[in-house]
Amino acid sequence: MSAAEEVVAEGHQAVEAVPKRAMTLGTTTSLVVLAALLIVPLFAKNFIIFQLTMLLIYGLAVLALNILTGGSGQFSLGQSAFYAVGAYITAVLMEQFNINYALTLPVAGVICFGFGFLFGQPALRLSGVYLALATFALATAMPQLLKLNFLEHWTGGVQGLVVTKPDAPFGLPMGQDMWLYYFTLVVVLAIYIFSVNLLRSRSGRAFMAIRDNEIAASSMGVNVALYKTLAFGVSAGITGVAGGLSAIAVQFVAPDSYNITLAISLFLGMVVGGVGWLPGSFVGAAFIIFVPNIAEGISKGLSGAVFGVLLFLVIYLVPHGARQVAIVSQQLIGKFKKN
C-alpha cells in the first residue's frame, strides 16, 4: 500500500461517514413529526408555545453547527457570536429603522454569512483544538464588543434593546405567541430542507470529503480552502437567522445574553443530538432547554450537579446521541416486522 493510500485509509477509519439516507428521518416519520408540530400548539398554553418556539430556534442554531462540524469536520465554540450578531441586526432594524420583522431575517443571514466567511479565511490555518480555541476567543470577545461606546446609540449598550413582538397579519385569529411559533416553524422548515439538499449536493459531498480526509479531498480536486470557508459562512448565516428569530421571540437583546455559555450549550446540543444527523439537532435543543429545568426540579440547590450527572449518563449510555437511539429503534422495528 502506498503512503497516499495509507493516509486515506487512516482518515477513513478515524471519522465515521454519515450515509445520505441517515441525514434525515423517513418520510412517514417526518410527516408524523410535522403533524405534531402543527397540532400541539392549538391545545397548549402560551408558555408552552413559547418554549416550543425556542426549541425550534435553538434547534436551528444547533443544525447550523452540525453543518459545520458534522458536515465539514470543523470544530467551533463561537456560534454564540454569530447568534448575537443576527439578534442585534434584527433588533436594530426593527426598532431603529422600523423594518418589518420578516425582512430583517434575510439581512441577518446574509451579513452573518459574510462575517462567517471572512472569519473562516484566517481560520484556514487552524484545525482541531486550535480552531476551537480561536472560535472560543471570538465568543468571549463578542459581548464586550457589543458594549463599545460608539455602538451604544444602536445597540443600547449594556442595557440592550427591547424588541416589539409582532401581531398576526391579515387579522388572523391567533395570539402573538402562536403566530410567532408558526412563523418560526415555516422558517425552520425552509432552512432544514435547504440544509438537507446542501449536504446531498456536490458542495455537501465536498464538505464530507474534507471532513473525512483533507489530503484525499485535495487530491481529488476539491478546493479545500473554498469549501471550508463556505461551510463557515453557511453555518454562520443560519445561526444569524436563528439569532434574529430569538430576538423577536424573547423581545429583548443584551450583550450578556450571548456569552460563552450559549456557545457551549449549542455544542452540547449537537453532541447529544448526534454529530452529522440533522434531525438530532432538535433533540439536542430539547435537551439544553428542558433538562436544566428537570435538574432544578430535582434539586434547586444542586441543579448544576444534577444536570452534570444527567449529561454524563446520556453520554455514557448513548455516546452517539439521539442518532444512535434512532438507529437502534429502527433495527428493533425491523425485527418486529419480520416476526
Task: Describe it.
It is built from 15 helices and 2 strands. It has 339 residues and is an all-alpha fold. It has helices spanning 3-14, 27-39, 46-72, 79-96, 101-123, 129-145, 152-155, 176-200, 202-212, 214-219, 224-250, 260-273, 280-298, 303-317, 322-338, and strands at residues 161-162, 252-253. Helix content is 73%, strand content 1%. This is Branched-chain amino acid ABC transporter permease. Its main location: membrane. It is found in: Cell membrane.
Our count of helices gives 15
Distance between the termini: 45 Å
What's the count of strands? 2
Helix content: over 70%
Strand content: under 5%
Based on secondary structure, the structural category is: mainly alpha
Envelope shape:
globular
Low-confidence stretches: 1-22
Radius of gyration: 20 Å
Order of helices and strands: HHHHHHHEHHHHEHHHH
Largest sheet properties: 2 strands, antiparallel
Q: What value does the average pLDDT take?
A: 85
Largest sheet, order of strands side by side? 1-2
Walk me through the topology.
Elements: H1 3-14, H2 27-39, H3 46-72, H4 79-96, H5 101-123, H6 129-145, H7 152-155, E1 161-162, H8 176-200, H9 202-212, H10 214-219, H11 224-250, E2 252-253, H12 260-273, H13 280-298, H14 303-317, H15 322-338
Antiparallel strand pairs: 1-2
Provide a brief overview of the structure.
With 339 residues, the protein is mainly α. Helices cover 73% and strands 1% of the residues.
